[in-house]
Amino acid sequence: MTMKTILAGATLALGMATGAFADGHQTKVGFVYVGPVGDGGWTYEHDQGRLAVEEHFGDAVETVFVESVPEGPDAERVMTQMALGGADLIFTTSFGYMDQTINIAAKFPDVKFEHATGYKQADNVSVYSARFYEGRAVQGHIAGHMTESNIIGYIASFPIPEVIRGINAAYIHAREVNPDVEFKIIWAYTWFDPAKEAEAATVLIEQGADVILQHTDSTAPQAAAQAAGNVVTFGQASDMAEFGPFPRVSSIIDNWAPYYIARTQAVIDGTWESTNTWDGIGPGMVGIGEITDAVPAEVKASAEAMVEALRTGEYHAFTGPINKQDGSAWLADGEVADDGTLAGMNFYVEGLTGDIPQ
Amino acid sequence: MIALEKRPQPSRFWTFATPLLAVILTMICGGLLFAALGKNPFETIRTIFFDPLFSEFAWFYRPQLLIKGAPLVLIAIGLSFGFRAGIWNIGAEGQYIVGAICGAAVGLAFYPTESFIIFPLMIVAGALGGLLWAMIPGVLRVKFGTNEILVSLMLVYVAEQLLASMALGALRNPDGMGFPGSRNLSQYPSAANLEIIQGSGMHWGVLTAFIAVIFAYVALSRHVFGFHVRLAGQSPRAARFAGVNPAALILICMGLSGALAGLAGLFEVAGPAGQISIDFNVGYGFTAIIVAFLGRLHPVGILLAGGLMALTYIGGEIAQSNLGLPLAAIQLMQGMLLFFLLAVDVLTNYRMRFGQGKPA
Fold first, then answer.
1. Rounded to 5 degrees, what are φ and ψ at A324?
2. Which end of chain A offers a freer environment for a tag, N or C, measured as fewer CB atoms within 10 Å?
């Protein structure tokens, strides 16, 4: 074989490769959403991630999505339908899609799946989540300073480790700056229900809370706080800047775009592998929204210092000494929590009142 | 001028023609809506109504129609008896939940024993659970004259709380790392509601739904019970003369609808859903009310209406994912369907007169 034929062969191969590309072998990426894309919170941010993927890859990638998919057999059908429709990569963006994702992934070994906030992996199923508790620590710090009634209201969604971690992280850091602080927790049993969330916020405010933290996705609690006048809130999942500079004084922002772009790129390159990603403020998956001037300057400065320490990894949001609610020791002085315990967290820390619903 | 004139008898022709007319009107107005959203109306209508049945991937969607339609039909058949007799069980959703909880609890109690008797026991428990939950509004109505519409509806919310408590407490998977939700019954062979023919979607609940349709048809057209039900609805006074015991009729109708809703819940939890979870129920109990009326409270009509409803759900999902249509547009179209059905219903009982309408 002469050099010429090799070159010709290479050119031909290259021509075919680019030809195939020009034919529009697009990589198709599907997204399954638990809420409507206009929820202004959780699903909205996932959709922003999807749009970022579209913008980054242009015509090379096509994205599809289905919103408000119930976490049951309907989710399996939607995933199957996306896989049949030619999706190469499917992001299932709610905890409740876990078993369904595993089931469907087993039927489509060539399709890659990415399940948000779950813990079950397979050869073609990755899991990814964000260390939102880092953001909760910052919220707790600000909330502990801001409260005058010393009552902080917390709208919790479901009693799963993810939510319990958030409550614990916020409480530890609120009490650190304000030993008299008390948490009142309402379990809404929903991720998104503006009516229920508004009702929960109103009840908490009536019980004397002047700071409301929420682990639900709508802006209804923000509106309720605004109506009440002197109640502080934090944006959840999305910046919710439209409620700033008061009542919304800061926020936890989920930033999925870099992860979605990286994973899509991995599928295009053929380097995708099943991974378990749990990123925090450091890699940029968790963002802290601007702390407004409604917060006193020195509090803002100390909160920003904490963000920086969390970002560099110098400080861990669960650093001992921390006792469990029943008084038994959990973390010794200076000890930091391991990921396994955090991932399955099902206990309150010392000082929180009430029980986790059983 | 168009005048409406009451027919002496409901028109037989229009009884059958109105559902079709409603579907056609929905397609037209839905098409206009989709066009206004910037989508090709013909492609959208084709995607929703035809793709699940005839597209390249119909082999996947046809079984899904059975899975989605079966609980609707099963519940609607039960409701149709009461609705015919003027007994309004609005709480099928709650009976569905309680049936699922009871059935799943029996299955989980045996875990991990394997025995052929477990699944039949679960079926009995599911039916009993739904029946007893429906007996609450039934007995209250008979004993104290309470309104069964309100009581049965309110009990849905009680059932939802019970479901949450079960998913977090008594039935929680001990190996679930603290997450809510029971063990997966579909992965426990003795308790799983598996497909009778692999890949057909035909699980035991679908079979039960078909059997229920046949029984309901026979009961309504051939059996004295069906006669009593129809009589009680058309003329309560005549029914009393015919020896119908109103209290017994209420309890039977409530119990029947509750038991069938409970069965639907059991088949769902042991099969497609697989586990008791906080948001296990997705509204089958309420949608079944629409299905019952869309099917004119007739067993065969309900079967067709359940199929149509399942079609719009599945086609709607395809349209969302393939055409980027928002969910709200699909729901609007489903709403239109019921709206048009009620609107054209007037043709069954009234005749249109064009020209000068002179009062008779």
1. -75, 170
2. N
Give the pLDDT of residue A7. Answer: 43
| Residue of chain B with shortest Cα separation from A81 | B318
Q: Are strands A211-214 and A151-156 parallel, antiparallel or unpaired?
A: parallel
Beta strands in chain B (DSSP E): 2-6, 350-354
Q: Least CB-CB distance to A159: which of B168, B282, B314?
A: B168
Q: Which domains are delineated in chain A?
A: 3-130 (3.40.50.2300), 132-253+286-343 (3.40.50.2300)
Read off the tokens for B247. Answer: 């209290």
Tell me how crowded residue B255 is: count the other CB atoms within 10 A of its CB. 20
pLDDT tens-digit readout, A263-297: 999 999 999 999 999 999 988 899 999 999 999 99
User: Which helix (H) or strand (E) is B65 found in, with range?
Assistant: helix B58-84
B101 with B163: CB under 8 angstroms? yes
Of B68, B180, B326, which has the smallest distance from its Cβ to A158's Cβ?
B180
Say if residues A210 and A54 touch (Cβ distance below 8 Å): no
pLDDT digits (tens, 9 = 90+) for B230-272: 888 888 888 888 888 889 999 999 999 999 999 999 999 998 8
Whether the Cβ atoms of residue B325 and residue B34 lie closer than 8 Å to each other: yes
Structural tokens at position A222: 């923000």
Closest CA–CA distance from residue B280 to any residue of chain A (Å): 7
- B128 vs B304: CA distance, rounded Å: 28
**Burial of B62 from C-beta contacts in 10 A (0-12 / 13-18 / 19+):** middle
The pLDDT value given to residue A158: 84
Judging contacts by C-beta atoms under 8 Å, the chain B residues touching residue A119 are 177
Residue type for A3, please?
Answer: M
Q: How far is CA A312 from CA A39, A174, A254, A257, in A?
A: 32, 22, 18, 21
The Cα A299–Cα A305 span in angstroms is: 10
B122: CB partners within 8 A, 6+ apart: B103, B104, B106, B107, B191, B266, B270
Interface predicted TM-score (ipTM) of this complex, two decimals: 0.73
Nearest Cα of chain A lies from the Cα of B148 at a distance, in angstroms, of 26
Backbone angles phi, psi at B326, to 5 degrees: -70, 150
Nearest Cα neighbor of A264 from A79, A75, A56, A104 is: A56
